[in-house]
Amino acid sequence: MEFLKKNWSNLIFIVIIILLIVPQTRKPIQIGLNRVIAFSPTRISEKDRENLESYNWNLVDLEGKPVNFKHSIGQVAIVNLWATWCPPCIAEMPSFQKLYSEYGDRVDFYFVTSEDPEKLKRFMDKKDYDLPVYLPLGLAPEKMRSRSLPTTYVISRNGKVVVDKKGSANWNDSGFKKLLEDLLKEEH
Predict the structure, then answer these.
(1) What is d(CA 157, CA 76) in angstroms, rounded to the nearest whole number?
(2) Which CATH class is domain 40-185?
(3) Which of 31, 41, 29 is nearest to 169 (CA)?
(4) Which residues contact 1 (CB under 8 A, 6 or more apart)?
């Protein structure tokens, strides 16, 4: 008993380390921590926004239907690069689902991953997500190439990259929704 009183903090630290080493507990802990620390994404200042020079990007949905990103010329678009094995990606998906449920009819959403379509379908069904998931058939436009997951780009009607966020964020935040509303009001 005396040992526990003196070393309780060390024992808790050891248990936490063990939980972070074991794969079955590590991923849920990482997802939870990412949700706790996810903030609203910051927008790029207007003077620093770059134009998306090309929208030519061939994709295919989970049913095999081809789609080209050119469809989003003149539209507000959100492109999220993600994977089912990526804890920060999984952490931000609930906020994306809520955002998509509210804005899916006014904003073009692209959730792009290179994983197996059957694995993706199982993941989406298990989580009850109806997000539009695509597989790339070629390289993304140059301004939307990233080696980090998750990476999310928000493109204005005028083809400006307004958000370039690496890492998880809270996409269903009132500040981000205000940005979307402002972008939707812009003329093309």
Answers:
(1) 5
(2) alpha beta
(3) 41
(4) none
Instruction: Identify whether the C-beta of residue 72 lies closer than 8 Å to the C-beta of residue 183.
Output: no
pTM: 0.85
Local confidence band at 124 (pLDDT 50, 70, 90 cut-offs): very high
Res 36 pLDDT > 70: no
Tens digit of each residue's pLDDT (9 = 90 or more) over 7-19: 777 777 776 676 6
**From its phi and psi, is residue 88 left (phi > 0), alpha (psi between -120 and 50) or beta?**
alpha
- pLDDT higher than threshold 80 for residue 107: yes
Confidence band, pLDDT 50/70/90 cuts, at residue 180: very high
Residue spans of the domains in the chain: they are 2-34, 40-185
Interatomic CA distance for residues 108 and 103, integer angstroms: 9
C-alpha to C-alpha distance for 21 and 27, rounded to whole angstroms: 10
List the structure tokens of 73: 């010329």
